[in-house]
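quick one, 549 residues, struct below
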Amino acid sequence: MSSIDSTVSVFVDSMLAIAGAERAFVLLVEKGKLRYRIGRDRHGKSIPMDSDHVNRNIIRQSMQGKRTTRAGDGRVVLALCLPVIDEDGKALGAVYLDSRSALPALVGRSISVLENLCREIAGAANQPAPRAPQATQAPAPAGARRASIVDMVAILETLTSAKDGLELALANVSLEIFDAETVFVMLLHHGEFSFACGRNRQGDDVPEVDFLEVRQLAMASLAEMETRSESVHFPPPYGTLVSICCPMLIDKELVGLVGLSRKAAMSEVEQQQLERLANLAGKLLTGGPREGAGSVLGNAEAAIERDREIAVELRENLTGPPPALRGVDVFCETSYADGCGGDAHGYEPDPHNQGATFIWLAEATRGGYMGAIDLTTVRTLLRTVLNVCGPLPLSEVVAKLNGLLLEDSRGGAPTALVLIHVDPPSSSLQFVSAGIPSVWRCAPDTGPVPIIEAGQLGPIGEKPLDEVPSFAETLQPDEFWVFSLAGLVATTNGDDEAYGYDRLQEALSGMSQLSSEEISAQLFKAVEAFHGARPLPFDTTVCVVRKTL
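---
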């Protein structure tokens, strides 16, 4: 495999993980013809291109239209093709992803991640051969395009197991992206380095003692604040590997180190990717720049904007399309505010009851990207409980989720949560509400009725839960339920008066003939009119569940 193919394979493996595909093929234009260059499966193995089972029509459409193209039947996507476009807008080829079963529903954020990786492939394909005099390229202008490694946060949580902290997520991502044999992470606390974690590609934890032989290299790397690499002899079963140590920097301030060992030396592109990942991880692991640190962005406003962008990207990655349920109309919406605590919502199919679904709404107490990381952790652990622990009452699901949050290495950041279970065949609606959300039942004959008790459970991740109250109801025709997080009623007007529960109750009256999406839109319209011609001050989330049959 050539050095370019090896570099491109790194990006392709990440694309397979993000898209949930079984196979990926890279085709590049060579001497005027589109030729097969790389084929990979989801396990990282090279595969030949099967011409009989590749949809060449969408490859042609993708390259001609210079846009991402899907193939399938209606909402079922079986293949995805993304064009490889260089900075001048020239189509250099395509990346084709497919699966024997339907690909997961990809929201705009995930598609953006894949398209950014295609731009990295274009950059690698355009690189001159190493022996050419012009092989050293000038760095791209600052801000010319986002570093694709920033987008790797979109797969951090998919590679993290139930009890792993972000340190292990970083290790898992590094193993996946850079084909490493071992990875370790060290963090700087009060002027001293502490060993955070070590992991090998078999998924086993590796103790600090196994990395003692690279300590000298690590210290040299940190002293110069630059990435270093050399061959190092590891204990069995690893043997002699190339060890690469890379400092984590936040606005030029040293906060830690990520090191990995692999069978081959790193290419220049891979080294740049590792440095980007290490710096991003340093920011996420430590909570951002230290007080008094110089900012390369130049001012606090730019730092806040960067924080907000990363937070929104993380939160948007949590949300997929609403489920299609027979007889029940479900719609959730989150409006993001600048610089505030994070809201998110999402849907999880019930793995033990076909046709039923879980809906979750969550609000992190911490703001910015750290709040978004908290929300990502909640979603990851919730999936673990639902899929691993078997069918459980909703109260036990929340109790187990709370326990995992307390055990998690980043615990101590409480999160408000509404967890809803909808079973259309039985018209069953069950829910648990933690924190201070509001829950309303709206029937044509009674109008909106607040379910006050629903918010009496404190936020999860704060303390052990002995008892978790849950609610079970039967959905009636033409009635709808509204679940909202605190931002809705807390929004204020110019007189610093909160929107409140009375105005919410009034707004909900007379909506029984509207769809769930229309009800949500009307609520946001009412709150925005109350607040005035300004952005909403808080993240705001609304979920509407309406019985239609």
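The first strand starts at residue 23 and ends at 30.
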